[in-house]
Every structure is written in C-alpha cells, then in structure tokens.
Amino acid sequence: MAASDLFGISSQDIDKNVPIPYHYQLRELLRDEIASGRWGVDQRLPSERELCEAFDLSRTTIREAIDALVNEGLLRREKGRGTFVAEPKITEKWLEAPDSFTESMQLQGYQIETRVLNLSVVPATYNVSRELRLRSTEPVIVLDRLRLILQEPVLVVTSYIPERLCPNLVNEDFTYQSLYKVLREKYNISIARAKRFMEAVAANELEASLLHVRQGAPLVLIESTAYLEDGTPLEYFKARHRGDRTRFQVESFKQVISR
Q1: pLDDT over 80 at 242, yes or no
Q2: Cys-Cys link to 243, which of 75, 218, 227, 234 (CB 3.0-4.6 A)?
Q3: 3-85: which CATH architecture?
C-alpha cells in the first residue's frame, strides 16, 4: 500500500506554489494525521524511499520533516526497525494549587513508580541555603528520586528540606508515598504557594543513564521553591523531565473583585 493511502494524504496536499518549505508542509500534514488518531500509536511509518515516491519530494526533505517530529516526541526511531508513532506525552498540570507530581499524575489515572536514589542529611550548599533562607551549611534533608510511569523513567528530581522543620523525615520510605502527602499527614505541614522556573537543558551522562536517553538529549529543567502560609521556605527542588515524554499545562486566573 502506498504511503499516501496509509495516511489519507498525497503529493497533491503539498502545495508547491506557495513559499512555505516542503518539509514544513509535510511535517504539519503528518502531525495532523497523528493528532487525529488516523495514524495510531506504535504504527510504523513507510520508509524514506516510499515517502519520497508518495509525496514526490527529496529524501533530504522527507528526513527533515521526520527529524522534526522525532525531536518533538511525536515519532520515535528504532534502530533496524524503522520509525513509529510514539506514545502521547505525559501532561503535568500546573493549576492554582502547587500539587505534587504524584498527585497530578494520579488525577489523570497514571500509576507512579518511585525509586529512591538517595535520602540523607547534608550541609546546605550556597544555592540551597539561599533558596531556603538558611544559615550557611545548615543541615538539609536531600531526597533524590527517579519517577517512572508505565515502567518508563520520565524524570529525576532532587528535593531539599530544612532538617529543623521535620527532622524525622529522613527515616521515611518514599518508595510508595508522596513527599507532600507525608508532610501534610505526618507533620501537619502544607504548601501554600510555590515559584517555579522552567528551561531546556541537555542530559548529562548520569541523567541519560537514569532516564534511558542519549547523552545530550533535551530535558526540561524545573526549579522550584515551595513556601508555607507564613512565607517560610519548605522545599527547594530541581527536576529534570524527559523532553520527549513530558509537556506542561499551565492555567492562569484573573481575580475578579466584587463591588
């Protein structure tokens, strides 16, 4: 079966009379087929040669369109097997309340697996003490975790909490329980607000090994400080999410003042 028959699109859908690059037009056509569900998860794409023939385009143009969709996480390449439609990205929601990653995922029906890489008490570094408003080298609890969804690693996160606020936290097992839930239920501590920064970074050797990606692969770095109602900093964390498996939903609200 021709590639155009598989997709429901053909070379006629590439408009060669407009100044829009062919690779961009093809990328958007393929993106629409994937988004509509007409091209399902794990379905194999035709070969580059078949796509060249179907759309009357050069191999360079075909490869540029496919590469863009692979980089976005819509397609995945498997060595020796071809290119396939990837699983949809996992959405982490940032709404009004600063919920934990676990709570955000559970609300969407995902089962979370956590591997605790480190749980210990260490002197605060300059950056950590600045964010948590601590004295230099004041003890903090550091918690390193690898988070998995559907047995696939999606993020690695390091949290820092002042030891004086919850000294026994270092004895907890976070394999099966959320940090925020433990803070609420065992320490009567609730987060009131959080500031968060997001930026793109490249995976280093350790992150690549933990997240099962190549070194230098795109990650989304989330840096956050959470505060209690009185403004006391409770947690500072740095989380590195796989760029090919995660996206973020942010909602803003306008405060309406009644008269």
Answers
A1: yes
A2: 218
A3: Orthogonal Bundle (1.10)
Give the confidence band of 235 by pLDDT, cuts at 50, 70, 90: very high
Reduced to 3 states, what is the DSSP secondary structure of residue 156?
strand
pTM of the predicted model, to two decimals?
0.66
Asked if 68 and 29 count as a contact pair (C-beta separation under 8 A), the reply is no
Other Cβ atoms within 10 Å of 10 Cβ, number: 15
- DSSP class of residue 46? P
Length of the chain: 259
Report the distance separating Cα 139 and Cα 164, nearest Å: 8
DSSP designation for 39:
S
Span 129-170, pLDDT tens digits:
999 999 988 999 999 999 998 888 999 999 999 999 998 999
> Residues with Cβ < 8 Å from 163, sequence gap 6 or more?
121, 138, 139, 140, 141, 169, 170
pLDDT value of position 259:
54
What are the E-state strand segments in the chain? 75-78, 82-85, 90-94, 112-123, 139-149, 152-162, 193-202, 218-227, 233-242, 246-250
Question: How many H helices and E strands in the chain?
Answer: 8, 10
- Cα dist from 53 to 58, 59, 105, whole Å: 9, 9, 43
44 DSSP β-pair partners: 84
Task: Give the sign of the dihedral formed by CA 120, CA 122, CA 125, CA 131.
Answer: positive
Structure tokens at 78: 């498997």
**CATH 1.10.10.10 occupies which residues in the chain?**
3-85
| Contacts of 159 by beta carbon, 8 Å cutoff, 6+ apart | 142, 143, 145, 179, 235, 236, 237
Map tokens 């859908």 to a residue: 13
